[in-house]
Amino acid sequence: MSDRRITFEMLNTYVDGELDAAATAEVARAVAEDPTLAREVAALSRLRSAVAESVEAPPISVPAPPSATGRRTAIAAGFAFALFVAGSVLVFNLDRDAGAEVLARAWQMHRGWSIEEVTAQPRPPSLLVRYAEAVPGAYVPDLSASRLSLVHATVAPFAGQRRALLAGYRGTRGCKISLLVFRSLDALGEALSPFRDGTNEAYGWRAGPLGYIIMSDGMDPGRFRLLAESVRETSRQHVPFDKETRLALRQSRDKSAPCMA
């Protein structure tokens, strides 16, 4: 790692996703090696979430460059087909006893907390770090760009000998999101795999040695799909969302209907 001291300004810019690639990698390495820096990053992320939760900003409309729009359209079409194929594969694999146990436990943990019973205050950084340490390598993203605040965190027995970290997010319009992180399963691939529980949606994927499942109550399907893909990318890279992703998440939120949970 560089001998350059990681300043507060660098950490703040890192959390905002505005550092260049080299500086982002440098800060990410420093944060991974220094628990104090990790706590500062967690504190900054929670502060951003609290600000986003407390201020209802008006919708923004920034036209995307034609090339980016075309690229996103092509990606969306390919992504939809990939989800169809991946979903078929996941359903087949999860018909096995272990897979069924994982899905049942995931939904049980999701239903085990309520947005009405938690406050909108961000989790204490030290508490979140402790929870993350219970599942080594787990990455809990800041979802304030999508107007979702982290309001709940816990670690609980999962499937087999696994433990799962559950991060619960609450939106400003009734949305409830759970993100589970646990030691990976063979049934999960690196691509997103969709599954359902009644009218509720979820996506699962693998990032290195860890499995992730993100679950929603009543969120607009298009918005939730974009959120899941964005979280999948950041779970692989362990870096905050870049400007383009934050803008896409914000616009998707502003254009979607309130959640129906």
Compact overview of the structure:
The protein is an alpha+beta fold and 261 residues long. It has helices at 8-15, 21-33, 35-54, 66-93, 97-111, 125-134, 221-237, 243-255, and strands at 148-157, 163-171, 176-183, 193-197, 200-207, 210-217.
Can you describe what's shown?
There is one protein chain. The chain has 261 residues and is of the alpha+beta class. It folds into 2 domains: 8-54, no CATH class; 66-255, Phosphorylase Kinase, domain 1 (2-Layer Sandwich). The chain contains 8 helices and 6 strands. It has helices spanning 8-15, 21-33, 35-54, 66-93, 97-111, 125-134, 221-237, 243-255; strands at 148-157, 163-171, 176-183, 193-197, 200-207, 210-217. It has a 6-stranded antiparallel sheet, with helices on both faces. The longest helix has 28 residues, at 66-93. It starts with 7 loop residues before the first helix and ends in a 6-residue tail after the last helix. Residues 51-98 have low confidence and may be disordered.
The total number of structural domains is 2
**What is the H/E string?**
HHHHHHEEEEEEHH
- Unreliable segments (pLDDT under 50, ≥5 consecutive)? 51-98
- Secondary structure tally, helices: 8
Task: Report the mean per-residue pLDDT as an integer.
Answer: 75
| Shape, per Cα inertia axes | globular
Tell me the fraction of residues in β-strands, as a range. 15-25%
Going by CATH, the architecture of the largest domain would be 2-Layer Sandwich
State the assembly state of the protein chains: single chain
> Radius of gyration in whole Å, from Cα?
18 Å
Ends: how far apart? 46 Å
CATH class category label of the largest domain: Alpha Beta
CATH superfamily of the largest domain: MucB/RseB, C-terminal domain
Structural class, judged by helices and strands? alpha+beta
Beta strand count: 6
Strand order of the largest sheet: 1-2-3-6-5-4
CATH topology of the largest domain: Phosphorylase Kinase, domain 1
